[in-house]
Design goal:
2 copies of one chain form a homodimer.
Chain A: H1 6-35, H2 38-45, H3 49-55, H4 59-72, H5 86-103, H6 105-116, H7 122-145, H8 151-171, H9 178-189
The first copy, chain A, binds a DNA duplex through residues 2, 9, 12-13, 16, 37-39, 47-54, 57-59.
Amino acid sequence: MSPRTKIQLEENRLATETRILKSALTIFSSQGFAGASIRKIARDAGISDGLMYNYFKSKEVLALAVLKSSFQTLDETIIYDETKSPEENFKQSVNNFIDLIQKEKTKIRLLAQMGLHEKKFNQLNQATTARYEESVSKFSEIFRAMKIENPVFEARILVASLDGIVFESLLMDQPFSLEKFRENLIKKYCT
Amino acid sequence: MSPRTKIQLEENRLATETRILKSALTIFSSQGFAGASIRKIARDAGISDGLMYNYFKSKEVLALAVLKSSFQTLDETIIYDETKSPEENFKQSVNNFIDLIQKEKTKIRLLAQMGLHEKKFNQLNQATTARYEESVSKFSEIFRAMKIENPVFEARILVASLDGIVFESLLMDQPFSLEKFRENLIKKYCT
DNA sequence: GTCTATACACGGATAGAC
DNA sequence: GTCTATCCGTGTATAGAC
């Protein structure tokens, strides 16, 4: 029944940890830090409350773990590869971003939920600021290479638009079609 | 000491209710629905827990009251007045919106906090969707009058940018200067 | 209208058996 | 590694005195 070798035990432990993280993501994302409970998460992951503490020593540690792994999946979205044309970079970046909204909605919602909490988790706000600056900087390069006027401001507008459609797709019932947004954006800047 | 006439009693009651709503706004806004507690709100408003229930019969009813009053202050932001030039309408609307972000940050944070909560408060998401459509529609009219190409999509981009800077000013440590954003936006569309 | 006291449920965290 | 039992704080809501 139960696994016998050390390796099997470790695999089992890893599998459980993965299940916990997945459940934690779902619950934290939809109910926020305060609204989520160890009980709900444990039940969702199919384990007992007590066992949770064998994996994560507190609710806050668990939240930080989920946060960290969620934030990592956002890496490498906006790119500026000098060996490619600026239009290619633009298309790729916009596509990456919009794909991300669709595929990682739960993680993005989590980051917003946690980020809105005053005081708690303010490392997150710093990280978000850094990511923003990086995105603006990359799009500025792209726009400069495309000879677009006022490239830095154009980049800020574009990044704001992208952040805006994130906001909208989180907060609205039927947000405007992301596909149309993608098409129109590319048409606007790449013709 | 205590007021004797009926009118004074009513004024007193109204004053207390106002204090409760103000405290509730602060606490709900920074800690979300689950994170806020009747105790914290009552303490902040300088009354006892029990008295809260004399004004609002449950935490949820209180939240809905705060939500409603917050949502109302967002009215009349994006305008389209046919007796004025489209440029005037544009400037006025953008100015209204950016002023709103600065002045009503707490209320906006509240709407975001509550809106991110899955299931609960989904009337809010419907209202947000309606407001979005209305904003897009008004900016579309403005852009059409300005002979800008693809006015509806341009309106969606603009509204997304505005929503984006809301998002950014809520989630980032030092968001990009709203004043520069305002200036550049107006320069871009009104010259 | 306001307070204090209290009932009662929920949630975080720990202990100890298996 | 996993579960059950349990402690204890916190929170919503109500009752009753003033």
